[in-house]
Every structure is written in structure tokens, then in C-alpha cells.
Amino acid sequence: MSETGKPISRIDGRMKVSGKATYSAENNFPNIAYAFPVRATIAKGRIVSIDDAVIQKEPGVIAVISYKNAFKLKPLDMQAQAKAGAAFLGENLPPLQDNVVHYPGQFIAVIVAETYEQARTAAYKLKIGYTSEKGAVDLKTELPNSEKPKMFMGEEAQVNDGKAAAPLAAASHKVEHTYSTPVEHHHPMEPHATVAVWEGTDKLTLYDATQGVGFTGSIAAYFLGLQKENVRVIAPFVGGGFGSKGLWLHTLLVAMAAKAVGRPVKLALTRQMMQTNVGHRASTIQRVALGTDAVGQLGVVRHHTGTYNNLTQFFEPSGKQSLVLYQAPQREVTYNVAHLDRSAPTFMRAPGETPGTFALESAMDEMAYQLKVDPIEFRIKNHTTKDPVKGHDFSSEFLLDCYRIGAEHFGWSSRSMEPRQKRHGKYLVGYGMATATYPGGRSAASVKVNMNAKGDVTVMTASIDIGTGTYTVLAQTAADALGVPVNRIDVKIGDSSFPPAPLAGGSQTTASIHPAALDACVLLRKELTALAIADPNSKLNGRNPDDIDHADGKLFVKGDNSKSDTYLNILSRAKRSEIEACATTLPISGAGLTIPSALCTPSQTPPEQNSDVKQYAFHSFGAQFAEVWVDEDFGTIRVKRFTSVQDVGRIMNEKTARSQVIGGVIFGIGAALMEATEYDKRWGNPVTRTLADYHVPVHLDVPPIDVHFIGKPDPHISPIGARGIGEIGITGVSAAIANAVFNATGKRLRDLPLTPEKFFDV
Amino acid sequence: MEEQPKLPDLSEAERNALEELMPDEMSEIITSGIKRRHFLKLFAVTGTSVLAAHLLGIEQLMARSMPIEQQAPMLIENGINLSFKVNGSTQRLTVDSRMTLLDTLRERLNLTGSKKGCDHGQCGACTVIVDDQRVLSCLTLAATCEDKKVTTIEGLATGNELHPMQASFIKHDGFQCGYCTPGQICSAVALMDEANNGDASYVTANVRKKSKSIKLSDEEIRERMSGNICRCGAYPNIVDAIREVHGDKAVAQVWQFADGTI
Amino acid sequence: MRPFKYSNASDAATAIGIVSANPTAKFLGGGTNLVDLMKEDVMRPTELVGVTRLKYAKIEKKVDGVSIGATATNSFTANHELIREKYPLLSMAILAGASAQIRNMATNGGNLNQRTRCTYFYDVSMPCNKREPGTGCGALHGENKNHAIFGWSEECVATYPSDMAVALAALDAVVHVEGTNNTKRSVQFANFHRLPGDHPENDNNLKHGELVTSIHLPVNQFADKSYYLKIRERSSYAFALISVAAALVTDGNTIKEVRIALGGVAHKPWRASIAEHWLIGKQATEANFKAAAAAELKNAKPLQHNKYKVGLAAKAITRALEGAMQGGVYGAMEADSTTTNNN
Questions:
Q1: Does B116 touch chain C (CB under 8 A)?
Q2: CATH pick for A145-184+280-440+618-761 out of 3.30.43.10, 3.40.190.10, 3.30.365.10, 3.30.70.1520
Q3: Which PANTHER family match (chain B) (predicted)?
Q4: Which residue from A99, A129, A309, C77 has the highest number of Cβ atoms inside 10 Å of its Cβ?
Q5: Which of A184, A580, A727, A757 is catalytic?
Q6: How far, in Å, CA of A364 to CA of A522, rounded?
Q7: What is the pLDDT of residues A355-376, one digit of tens each?
Q8: How far apart are alpha carbons A240 and A278 in whole angstroms?
Q9: Which residues contact A200 (CB under 8 A, 6 or more apart)?
């Protein structure tokens, strides 16, 4: 029976519940020293003095490292970096190379000491003198000086600029509003941390909390001037990422510090540094306009985003879903990006779609209400089965089923069109829904599979499990492909010395590594088959390989179970202590991947040669439904139940998949109701500095969440048929909640998060 | 930085686990005791092998803390000589007065199961049980722990038997990345005692009504667990896990390893 | 965290002696606030004296009320039979604060000494008169959404964060303190904390080296009609935007006695005396509650970003009084527990 899809418990669960799973900061070495970074206290300017000589004498201090004495890193050079696979330094600011301050909180020095307590104290005592300039710290103030970037991640950024004006003017019904979303922070529970261990001067091991060991290794190697293969990055367990665990400057800092002191050095960021040094989702001011004809057929969608960045090419792409959802002949999606003297924004769970679906799906609700049409009916009427801009069919698309299944389970039919119709005691009760969407991606990946003489199988790839279930689903795939029980399979990931795999981001790990794992297992079986066929003592001797099947740890002749040979016997007679195979699959698009060794055989049908890839648009879809209770006196909102239906291709493990969707929804509840980083408008410091004031949802904020999957394999994305699932769960959630608040109260809130004071402003 | 030989006697299960994982070191361990570097290797091996985690004997081995090298006294400012019990065994060490219980566990005793999520009492990842109460080890100075009894996530299992709360978390997928998990579980274990004592919470309908032991509603579990933040969003599953241990009818087990472990 | 000497005190006199002798020494209770602030480098004591082992952890019935020990934990206090039965307002207020773990650590004496959550106080790179007198108030013209609407000064607009203290203010508690040479004094709760004025660095009127030993709760008739309401940005484990401790004694529907204290609005728990005065002798109706709240809030002076607190506080006072009239049953006023299980 197939293991794939079964809701088996996580194979790494026992380690996690017993405290044995080791995260990066938990790698203790003899003679380890502790690093604590020093952060800039101004928004913009230059360092003019550092009393490092004084602090050097503090108890336990081994080194005070600043631009004055820091190791010289390779400078930024986009072409050279791209060639070295080192393009995505979190912030384009190799640390401690000069005295310029670009934002409040920037790492400007690092103390290395014998103990953590000593390093921290010395860092607090270090006096820095600055010449300070007024920084640009507020988006609204700076938007008039913004630019319209041409490109975003290799795609046209401005689509049909100015083209929507005429059709909007001609539309029978029009909705146009401004929706704003705040700065949000990822705040994975494990703060970023790195332990750096040098071996001589040219070999480095980094125990790093990262979403990509290969990715981190390449970037670190580039800037430190090392051979890529001489930087090993290890991260068997990572305490969440959500987009924040790329390579940020502390990883370079600790490598530089360890080099300077000639000892292993540990650097763990504080929660306060998580607010200023590892990226965030930038705030957006979005203007969305929809126009329909007299009967509610959408003719035009216009979505303009104002946002900012600094020290990165990245900006929040909140118009993305407005290029994918609904039939509408004309659409215009544009961006204005201002410069702020703030740390670099970055990818955060469903970058673009999270704030973008809030705006688009709120506007859809507003239009439905204006038309007096049920919001689901309105969406069905405007449904598209093709990418509306590129014209390609979606590879696999069941959005209408998502609406229907969601409506049934949620009990949507009892919703009234008019607001303020449902009460429960002091509460106004409302229902809201929204569409969810996220692209389906797939990158190159290599997986190696090893079987030993005892029949234990090890699956190895430089992928990462940031909580997604990578360990477990890989074991399931290998179990099926080899006919070996899951509990005989050891999965080894999180080590850059394993065959390369993509960054655990962009909802693409499963879609990328499983085809490679499948291929590797097939290769391994082929080799076992060849050994058996060639062996006169095997019952399979001389058979045609095409006649051989496998199950339960053995090979057998199709249709004749009695003619079989176990893997153990085949290996034993061949005097093989182990057998190994490795396979590489290529990406749908994007950069290629070096094949790590002769053992790694490229897939028989690289997808880029597959006509499917050119013909189809790959997207996941879903429908989100929220019931909210609003205490109108206080402006407090509680989500009382939530239904999420997702069309994400094949489900590899119902249990872990459901958990990912639940997690996405809860992230969305946070974005809808409470999450916001605010900054002082004079100095640019975040005034929400810790988890006491940057509120993320707690247990009591979270209702029962009802998750359903369509579960139909995507026939075009890969032989496995799974698209990613990590991000779509958050999309549409804040719109579903805001729409429910409108249904409850008649108040339309367009500025996230929906904290009590927003209610008083309406 | 001498390595102190320690723990000369091993249980049968522990010996088997060590033999499986570190066959080359066994003769040395048997003759001269298990040393810190053996622990480090054990951590390294089990840290990358999910199969190793299922070996009998591993839980006991991991619950044993192994002090990392005693720092030279000159390096410790305002040193405090401390003696307290961790997971049943007495620990004696000198700590800097600034050192928290959390950092003592993680940096000095190699008990890294307790996690540092915020270091300011705002997330609950560092929750441990001190003298039968769940507390935050990040805001507890080690110096205040003289003579106290500390139980960490490593000390919850009995032999190779996971604590029912640990098993229930696995079954209900009460975690994703696993980082908040030790804190959630320690918190949930202590919560069971609080419910047995009839303690009230902010969502208790009427605090004046005191009964000996109370049955917690989902809302009560959520409020009482709200000091443990999970950013991956495993909350509904954690509530399910706790509810099962709290005495609700067990939800059918869907899958287990062939040897009977979950 | 700067280096400090540490000792566990075995008796109060020793502890008081050590702290009195060193102007930069502090008592350490549960550590939930002081250790946090030391890690932030906001507080830099050179010496700490642990007081949790002192014999002040009892909760006892006295002829004129109940005495709660300063080193008893918040959890122990909230769950003590005497408190739950006679002072449910205090139980509710304590349970509304922080998390179970923090309440297990935090002491009652420490709770009274906790410091503001103002971000300008916490961020040592921004100005704050409370942290560093003379540097200015960063919040006055800054991000002051969470700040005071009553009793602030140009020097400081911070609020006092405790929930427990709001209930103690409503209950007219008396704080017992001990100083050097065994000197003991009692402080009416209203005089314990202070408004910022020109010296926001002082949160309360304790002298350096004075140790809170117990809190006395006078006998009252409020147990049947009291309620603690807390409004915050998430359902739990967050500081109050506004909180209200309300307690009533009625004769039929006529209000004989009423206590209202607000949290999250001032540098100290704010007794709504105007509203209380207005209500005495009146009928316990929603209209009267609203009018009383309006009378109190007329004197509010909101800052740029906290105008919402004025309306919110008025509604919160009304609702808390209604809650008290209904017998302090939680579910009647806030999210109930009717949600279904998710299986």
C-alpha cells in the first residue's frame, strides 16, 4: 500500500518532543567564544569614533571588531555574485567594511568574549561617536520621491501602465479604494544564530539557522573569498524561517570574528535584532480599482502599489495576484518604490500575495456588495481557467471546487448579504471569504539514496526542514519507490555536503526534491535488478529487467511472486556493503544546477525540454472562509472559526499538509488583526521592539481551523504531481477576515492590522 | 579544561544505544566512563539521524546533563557557587551572577532542549518546571536556583517511554519547526497539575467557584497556554494533544513505527 | 547586563541593610521585570539581593481584612481560597496579566514595583526622562498610541502596566513597607504610586532600600459585584490598552458604594473618583454608567495617537460596571467558550 499521502506522524517528531533536535546555536565546542553585535543608534550618517581600546580591556573580551580592523570581504559585484550563486545577500551591505550608517540597528561592530554575558556587557558599553544626518524614515513622506522600477526578479515590473484608465471610465460599476498594510516581521521562534568553525585559513564550517545550506554556503564563500566546496553549512533543524532565513550579515560577522580570534565563535541574534537585522515585509499603500459591465462582468483590474526598499533590489510585489485571478480583459499592475533609511525588506511568507490579496479580495467584496451579488457568485462569474495575462491554461486548477466545498463546510448559505444581521450577545457576527492563490514553482534538485547491507536506506539531499515536514515526506516517497517500510529510512538533510537542493522557500521544496528522490530510487532499484539478473544464484537470473517488479524489500517477477529475491540477499551474494544512486532533476525555469558527481544522473525528461512547461501556467488556488465576532464597543475582533480549502496538487502527507495550511491561516490572522511594526518618525527606530509589542497570535486568538484539500495531482508540474503548500495558506486570510468584519458591522476597514483604534477612526 | 569522567554505570538500554551509535568508543566508555566529548558526538550523531532518535535508551542518556568545561574562576565575574537538581541529578557549578537558568542549561550543562526564543519572557520557549511550577528559565537567574529542583524537556520521559504529553504532541502534530515545542510541552505538563488543583484562569466563568479539580474547555486550554507562542501555528493541534492527555477520548492512532513507538 | 554582586537574603533586615547601603543595589523578586530590564541595559544595578526566600509569602485572614505577603507569587495569590472568595476582583485582575509562567514567578511586591512598558523607556538609544532624567520624553511627540490620557506631564506620558495594581487601587489596599532599623510604615494604595510631574524617574513613593512586606486588603462587600475588564490587541498575553476594575454594593438597584479604577491610562492606577462620586445614590443602569464614565473622561487629555482611548475607556467603564452587576461572570462579558472542537 502506498505510503505517500498517508497522514503519518513526523519521523523527526520524537527528537523534537524530547529536546534532542539540535538547532544551530546548540552546537557547543571546546574553547568556543561568544560574539555579540553592536548596532547603530542613528538612521543615517558616519561613525567618527569607537572606544574599542577601552572595551578591549573589559573582562573576558577577546576582540572588538569594527570597520577599523575587520577582515576585508569581497566587494559587491552583481555579475560576479550571480556567477557564484551568491546574488542574494539579504542586504547589499558586506558588514564592517566602512564607517557609513545606512539605518538604525545596522551592525557596526562585534564583540568577541569568553562568555555570552561578557560579550553582551562589553557591547553595551562600547561608545560610538557619529556624525548624523536626517534619515528618510516614513513611507508616506517619501512616496512622492519614489521611482517606478522596470524589473522585479527578472520580470517586467510595470504591466500596462496607464492602460486601465479608459476602460475604468467606461465601466458601469466601479470600485476604487486605498488599502494599506504595515511592516511585518517574520519572527520565527528560533532567532537566527550561527556557529563558525574554521579549519586552517581556508576551510569553514557554519552551523547556521538557514533556509538553504547550499545558498548560504555559496554566498559566504563568495564574500569570504573561499572555495565554495570549502564552506560547509549544517542545519539539520531550523526553528522556522518564513522567508527570513536567507543569508544575513551576522553569518558573515561570525565567520569574520572566528577568523580573527582563531576559535569557534557562536553568535545568536537577540529578539530585538530580529526586528532590525534579518529583513521584514515592507509596508504597502495599494490603490485598487475594479470596473464591471452592467451585469457584473469584470472588464478591468488596476492595482497600484506604493512601497519602499533599501540595500536590495527586492520590493513587496503586492500586485502579483492581480495578474492571475479572474477574467478581465484589461489589467494594469504598477509599482512605486521609495527609498527609506531602514533595514532591507525581504521575502516573507507569500511575498506579494499576502498584502496583495488583502487589497484585491477586499475590493472584490466591495464590488460584490455594490452589485448586490453574493461574493462567491461574483467570483464564479469572473472565474478564469487561463492565466489572464499570458493566456496559458493553468496546469491544474480546481478553484470553483474550492468555493463550493468551502461554502458547504462553512455554512456560507446562512450568511446575509446585508451587514449587521447576526448577533451573539454583545457581539456582531459576520461571515467573509476570499480567494487564495500562490504560484507553483519547481527548481533543480539532486537526491542521493543509499542502501546498506542491513537494508537500511538513507536519503540525502541538501534540503531543509523548517517545520514543513521535509524529513517525513521524503521518507514516504522513498518507501514507496523502493518498497521498504518508512521506519527503515533515515533522511539526512540540512548539510551542504549532500547533493544540492533549492532553498526552502517559495513553496517549492516538495515539488523540486521529490522528483529527484523518485529518480534516485528508480536508479537504485535498477542497479539491484541488474545484480540479480546477472547472478546465477538468483531466481531472477537472466530475466528481462522490464519483467521485474518490487515490493516489501524484494524484487520479483511480475505475476509470479514465488520468483523473487530480497534486496538483502542480492547485496549479500554480490558482497556489496552498500549500494547508492543519485539523481538530478532540472527546474521549470531559472538557473540550472551543477550536477554534483558522476553518480548523479540527470532526469530522463528534464522539464525544460518538456512542452508542458511552455504551455501551462503553474498556480495553486484556494478559498478562505472566516466567521468573526466583533465587539463594537471596543473594536475587538475574534475569529471564531475558519475554513480553508486548498487546491495544491497531490498531498504528500495529509497530517503535515494540514498543519502547513493551519499555520498559514494563523499567520494570516496575525496579519489581519494584530501584527505591525511601527517606527518613530523622527529617528526611525522601531517602537515595536520585541514580542511584547510586536504581537503575533497566541493560543487564545486561534479558533478551530477546518482544512480541506482537493488533492488532485498536477499532471504537468512533475511525475509526483505536488505543488507547494507553505505559502498559499496565508493568502486571502486577511481579506476574508476584513470582509467578515464588514458583514458583521457594516464598517469597511482598509488599513491593516484591525486593532481597536482603527475601529474608532472609522 | 579537563574532561571529568562521569556516569560510569549505564543501563542495558543506554549501553545498547551507545553501541549502536558509537561502536568505536564503547570500550573506552566502559573502562573510563562517558566523557563530555562522547556526549558531543552523541549529539552530533543523533542530531542528524532521525532513526537514532528511536533507539531505546536514548531518552535516559539525553536527560543526563554533562557539564561543559568549568571556566577558569578568573573568567567568571561575581561567581556564584550553585548546587541544584536538574532532571533528578545534582549539579554543582560556579556561574556568573548574570547567567540565567536558561543559559546555564544550554551553555554549561549541554541541556539544549530548553529554547531561547526571546530571552525576555515574551514567548515561553524556555519554559521549564522548577519545584513543580512552570516558569521561564530566561528570566530566572541561575543564582536564585540554589537547592531547587528543575525539570526540563529532557527529563520528562521515563526510561524510553515518552511522557504521555510528548507522545500526544507527536500524534496530533502539535508542532512544525519544533523550536517552541519543549516549552509548550513543559507548560502543558504543568497545566495538568494546575487543572487538578482547581486553579482558575482569566476565562474561568466564575473565579469564586472553587472546585478540587477541573475539566478544561478548549477555551480554558487556549488561555492557559497563551504564554507559549508558536509561530508556525500549531495551536489547534496542540489543543488537541493536550485535550487527549487531559482525559478526552483518545483519537484513533493513525500511524506508528513498527516497533510500537510513535 | 552589567556585572552585579548577588546574594540570597535570609532575613529582611539583612536585605534592607544591603540595599540601603548601596544606592545602585536592588531587591530581586521573581525577576520577571528587573531581569528583563537589565538585559535591555535599561537598569544597571551593581548589586542584587534575592528576597523570594524571605518569610513574606503568606496570605492570612485578619480581623479587618486579608493580608497578602509581598513574596507570595501572583499565581498563589490569585488562586488562594480567601482571595477567590472575598476579593474575586483581585483574582481576575492578576489572571488577566502576563502568562501562567510569569504569574508563577512574579511576586506581589515585585508587581507593585514593575516599570512602564513605554518603548522609549526600553530603547536606550532614544530619549527618556524616566530612564535618564534630562534627556526629554520621546513619547510626548512620538508614537504614543499606548500612552497616558490622564495625569501626564511634559516630562513623561508613560503608563503603569500592572493589572493587579488596578484592582488593588479599587480595593483601597494598604501597602506595608519596612526600612532600615526595622522602621515600618503603611502606605495607602492611592499614595503608593505617583504621577510623573517633574520626576518621572520615580514610579512610586518608596524610599531607596524600603521593602514591601505585605499588602492589606480591607474588608468590603464587593465580592458579589465586581469585575475586571481588560482590552488588549490580542486575546491574551498582552498589556492593556485600557483595563477597568469595577466593584459595586447596591441596595436593590440603588448604588450604595462603587469603586472604579483604570489601567493603561496614567502613570499610576487611575481611580475614577468623579465617576464614582457621580454614581453614589443613583440607579445601576446602563444610562447612568455611561453618564458617569463621560463625566470622568471629560477631564482626559489625550495625546496625538491615543485619542481612541477616551472613547474606549468610557465604553470599558460602562461595560465593567455592567459586568460587576451581573456578578463578575466572565463569559457574560467577553468571548465565550461555546466554540466547537475541531475534530
A1: no
A2: 3.30.365.10
A3: ALDEHYDE OXIDOREDUCTASE IRON-SULFUR-BINDING SUBUNIT PAOA (PTHR45331:SF1), OXIDOREDUCTASE, IRON-SULPHUR BINDING SUBUNIT-RELATED-RELATED (PTHR45331)
A4: C77
A5: A727
A6: 48
A7: 999 999 999 999 999 999 999 9
A8: 13
A9: none
Instruction: Considering only the beta carbons, identify the residue of A15, A121, A271 that sits closest to B118.
Output: A271
Q: How far apart are CA A109 and CA C95, in angstroms?
A: 43
The residue written with cell numbers 527609498 in the block is A339
Predicted local distance difference test score (pLDDT) of residue A613: 67
- Chains sharing 3 or more CB pairs under 8 A with chain B: A, C
Task: Give the separation between CA A464 and CA A211, rounded to whole angstroms.
Answer: 6
pLDDT at C212: 98
Per DSSP, A690 falls in state S
* Predicted local confidence at residue A444, as pLDDT: 84
Same fold, A145-184+280-440+618-761 and A442-490+498-608: yes
How much is the pTM?
Answer: 0.96
CA–CA dist A478, C8 (Å, integer): 58
Q: What is the CATH number of domain A16-134+189-240+245-275?
A: 3.30.365.10
Q: What is the pLDDT of residue C338?
A: 39
Q: Are A643 and A713 in contact (CB under 8 A)?
A: no
Q: Which residue of C has its CA nearest to A125?
A: C2
d(CA A661, CA A730): 8
Does any CB of chain A come closer than 8 Å to the CB of residue B77? yes
Q: Does the annotation mark A3 as catalytic?
A: no
A442-490+498-608: what CATH class?
alpha beta
CA C342 remoteness from chain centre:
37
Identify the segments of chain A with pLDDT beneath 50.
Answer: 589-599
Angle between helices A654-673 and B235-245 (to 10 degrees): 120
Residue (of A619, A211, A691, A549) closest to A398 by Cα position: A619
β-bridge mates for residue A582, sequence order: A448, A600
Size of interface A-B (CB pairs under 8 A): 259
Give residue-wise pLDDT tens across range A686-719: 999 999 999 999 999 999 999 999 999 999 888 8
Residue C263 lies in a domain: yes
Q: Which domains does chain B have, with CATH numbers?
A: 12-63 (no CATH), 73-125+136-148 (3.10.20.30), 164-245 (1.10.150.120)
First to last CA, chain B: 40
Can you give the pLDDT at residue A640? 97
Burial class (CB in 10 A: 0-12, 13-18, 19+), A327: middle
The reported pLDDT for the residue numbered C337 is 36
Q: HEC states along C146-166?
A: CCCCCCCECCECCCCCCCHHH
Residue range C136-165: average pLDDT? 98
Averaged over B99-116, what is the pLDDT?
Answer: 97
Among candidates A685, B100, A167, B54, which has minimal Cα distance to C39?
Answer: B100
Provide φ and ψ at A733, rounded to 5°. Answer: -65, -45
Using the structure block, give the residue that is written with the C-alpha cell 495599494.
A286
pLDDT at B54: 73
The number of folded domains in chain C is 2
- Residue A388, beta-bridge partner list: none
Chain A positions in Cβ-Cβ contact with residue C340 (cut-off 8 Å)? 641, 704
- Whether the CB-CB separation of A728 and A670 falls below 8 Å is answered with no
Contact A173/A291 with Cβ under 8 angstroms? yes
Give the residue with greater pLDDT, A300 vs C335: A300
CA distance A495 to chain B (A): 9
Selection from C194, C195, C189 nearest residue C176 by Cα: C189
Domain that holds residue C28: 5-52
CA distance A593 to A604: 16
Contact status, residue A72 vs residue A259, Cβ threshold 8 Å: no
Q: Which of residues 265-284 of C touch A (CB under 8 A)?
A: none
ipTM over 0.95: yes
Computed on alpha carbons and rounded to an integer, the radius of gyration of chain A in Å comes to: 27
